[in-house]
Design brief:
Elements: H1 2-16, H2 18-30, H3 41-62, H4 71-95, H5 102-113, E1 125-126, E2 132-133, E3 135-139, E4 142-149, E5 156-157, E6 164-166, H6 174-189, H7 191-195, H8 206-213, H9 226-251, H10 257-268, H11 286-299, H12 304-310, H13 314-317, H14 320-337, H15 346-361, H16 376-388, H17 401-419, E7 428-429, E8 432-433, H18 436-462, H19 467-478, H20 499-513, H21 517-521
Antiparallel strand pairs: 1-2, 3-4, 5-6, 7-8
Helix pairs in contact: 1-3, 1-4, 2-3, 2-6, 3-4, 4-5, 4-8, 5-6, 5-20, 6-10, 9-10, 9-11, 10-11, 14-15, 14-16, 15-16, 18-19, 19-20
Amino acid sequence: MIYRLLSKYLLYLAFLMMIPLLFAAYCQFIAYELHPQSHSTLSFAITIAVCLAISFALHKWGNSKKDQLRRHEGILLVVAIWLATSLVSALPFFLSRTLTNPIDAYFEAMSGLTTTGASMICPKAYNPTGEEIPHHITNLHVPDKTYTFYGTVAPIYDPETNLVLHSGIEAVGKAILLWRSMLHWIGGLGIVVIFLTVLPALQVGGKFLYQVEMTGPIKEGITPRVKSTSSQLWRLYLCLTLLEIALLLATNGEMPLFDAICVSLSNISTGGFSVRNDSIASYHSTATQWIVFLFMILGSLNFSLYFHALRMKFKQIMAPDFFLFLGTLLAGCLLVSIPLIGEYSIGQAFKEGSFQAVSMQTSTGFITANYDLWPFASQMFMLLLMFVGGMSGSTAGGIKTSRFYILFKIVQHRLESIYRPDSVRTLRIGSSEVDDKNALTVLSFFCIVAFFVILGAASLILDGIDPETSLGLIACFLNNVGTAFRAAGPLDSFAFLSPFSKILSILWMLLGRLEYYVVLLLLLPSFWKNR
């Protein structure tokens, strides 16, 4: 059953990859001046062929199976889809020689699909004789620790003057950059949720897959049928993306259409991949910054709220989770911005501080300033906001505000029960009742997060990374934020990580995106037993 479903899924994935293939062919054979490094057509063609070959093989192996999809197989199917998609999606990075290390290519693909936004793309450095030299990064607070590593992407030179035309991310082919942003968009709403609209075989067990894929403890359906719900979500997702593209082009006449498309694909999915080395700061446009700011928030709202608004059901919008999310955003903006007064003017402090606070809480990871030079108080609050995250049922990462609300109510009820042991209490989020089973699941979730934060930070420290960088990295990966602090700061890539840390980071990103339980179930021996 799983073979057959994976076969159909990969068939649709291959069809989707026709978009970057056609764009790569356009850049290479028609508009070569668009970018001097655009030879990725063959890479996408080979990837599509590999995807179709795997799909055909899986179809042959699973063709005779007629079982219905049950909860047990559904869990395995979700993880298998994520791992298979990351593997196939990594091929264009590796085959185009954008990233020559297969671990780096898989890291980039997983980072894109989980909407983390952490990148292995780093400009190569050369001495005057043309010999490649390594990069050196030193944490100012740990001066005896220096990270030495080589870049991953060679710069593009002017053939006449031999001056550098493009470096870093801007030296990567346009089709590869488009594919990076598309990975965000595909993974943002959820791979399974998007393909529930086109895979008829998933009608059986589809509700469970939808609940596994959507983030947060509360899984609210929009329509009675899961296929209809996922279809409505997909259309809303597309409309918001097109709206942002239109607004970016209308308010910034100097922004290319390509940049507007890639920024919108990354933004509404709260991903953070950019096509410029300086991220959003490279556009030098206040209007662009505020539009990105707005859509980071829109991508972090529970998508069911949009449908309630369209149906004029405003009472269902006014839930505690919604106000808690907005209150946390406001508090975060103030707490990050106030320490910046003195470093900037008051207006500039609130502008830069608010953008980075929202970028961190929504797990988008776009940057407009080098916040690694900001006061420690601002950095501390930004680190905390990374764990808070957006609302349930959004594209944002983090723990989710609804879980914090449930945790608060649980503690409140427990305290009240000390002096009122006979009273009966019902835990609710708005009109939704949270039973004891879900409450226990939320408590377990916080324990799991604490465990993996400690385990992840300790593992990175044992691998030779300083404590400040390690804590920022683990917060980045588990919450799918995409940017961290110190050696992994806003101006640096993640190329300094060792192979062990890269593999660990890939697992951490997947754990954070699938919110732990689905992946951890596969580690239980009882999961693999027939009964």
